[in-house]
Amino acid sequence: MVNATITKESVLALLAEIPDPEIPVVSIQEMGMLRDVIIKDDLCEVIITPTYTGCPAMGIIQADILMVLASHHIKPAKVTMVYSPAWTTDWMSDEAKEKLKNYGIAPPLHSSCNSLPGSNLHIICPQCGSKQTEIISQFGSTACKALYKCNSCKEPFEYFKCH
Amino acid sequence: MNTQEALYNYCLRLGDNALIHAHRICEWCSNAPFIEEDLALSNIALDLIGSAQCFLKYAAEIDGKGKTEDDLAYRRSERQYFNYLLVEQPNGDFANTMARLLLMSAFDVYLFETLATSKDEAIAAYAAKTLKEVKYHLAHASDWVIRLGDGTEESKYRMQKAINDLWLFSGELFEMDETDTILINEGIACNLHDIKPKWQNYISSVLEKATLNLPEAIHMVKGGKNGLHTEYLGHILSEMQYLQRAYPEAKW
């Protein structure tokens, strides 16, 4: 039996603190992965949406959610992954994009663009702000990022792909 | 065959194609020509594993016998796998891997574009998600085929040879049977005859940019879709399933 004083808002507030395991400066809420909380008499269900189908962070995120809920005695609880509507970088908050930039990752430029990185997009270097950048690879250290280099400050950087 | 049985088969095919292709591509991990390519191939394989997980999980749900996606991946033998022969072919050289990725990911893009509007909600949701990812795979493969085809004498020779060698497996992509027909009538599956011209146009345009020749019409081999495989699948499974076969129920 889920405690009667628990509300959807209070659970969302707790979960909003959980960092993204791969980019810890942003939370799963800011990334737009945390979709909903459904409180029923006998269950607290958390709805999340994966960024990429094979994102290995999803398992950790599920475990983190259950741990936060357990530490607040919210149980039984379960995490459900929902694929529709598909996650998009549109759901990323402006604060999250700013945090990514300060962390050294160029945030996604356009909202839900269909163009792939490298195709006429001027990605701004998160280090020096230059537009003189070029793509090295459409694939980076994680599924969600591409590799770029800045021709002004000569630093390599990662770009969070539009998705 | 009823709709539910057809849907189960259909999801196994989608899952198996992604899983076996992913397993092949994973073999490049730490062996790619340079580190960015290593990352790219590993990312592509990871996307495919994610897609396989979605479809096999859904297949297990439809089956309703309490199995998981892992049971389906690790406890089926060759004859129970329904992937295309194309995806189980060995990596060969880099040109070979890129030719296989080009043929398959172009097919995937058109397939998932259609499946994103499937009347089956789960398939539509997974397809919409997968589509975003396979577009990257296709862009990557196309870039390489063009670069190698329109490259040095050696790279051009190898790229053309790779396309020629794999061409006989491309016909199977558009084969349809009872499973497809039942689900097409229900608005669930993709009519592969409809996407074939788009696929042909795309492949022709890439080969043209790559200054390569479109292979001539040849006899096409098939069988994977119905569980009849080349010798390579058994070797893939023996490696992939070893742990679960030797230590059933082993967990991390």
What features would you describe in this structure?
The complex is a heterodimer of chains A (163) and B (252). Chain A is α/β, with parallel strands linked by helices and 163 residues long. Chain A is 20% helix and 21% strand. In chain A, β6 (145-150) and β7 form a beta hairpin. The longest helix of chain A has 15 residues, at 57-71. Chain A is elongated, with a radius of gyration of 18 Å. Chain B has 252 residues and is an all-alpha fold. Chain B has eleven helices and no strands. In chain B, α2 (35-63) packs antiparallel against α6 (121-149) and α5 (94-115) packs antiparallel against α9 (192-209). The termini of chain B are far apart. The A-B interface holds A 50, 52-56, 82-87, 116, 136-143, 147, 163 and B 36-37, 39-40, 43-44, 46-51, 53-54, 121-122, 124-126, 128-130, 132-133, 135-136, 139-140.
Sheet/helix structural class of chain A: alpha/beta
Task: Count structural domains of chain A.
Answer: 2
Q: What is the radius of gyration of chain B computed over CA atoms, rounded to a whole number of angstroms?
A: 18 Å
- Write down the CATH class of chain B: Mainly Alpha
- Strand proportion of chain B: under 5%
Distance between the terminal alpha carbons of chain B, to the nearest Å? 38 Å
The major beta sheet of chain A can be summarized as: 4 strands, mixed
Low-confidence stretches of chain A: none
* Helix proportion range of chain A: 10-25%
Q: Biggest interface in this structure?
A: A-B, 23 and 28 residues
The succession of helices and strands of chain A, N to C, reads HEEHEHEEEE
Total number of β-strand segments of chain A? 7
CATH architecture of the largest domain in chain A: 2-Layer Sandwich
Instruction: Report the end-to-end length of chain A measured between terminal Cα atoms.
Output: 39 Å
| Structural domain count of chain B | 1
Flag low-confidence runs of chain B: none
How much of the polypeptide of chain A forms β-strand, as a percent range?
Answer: 15-25%
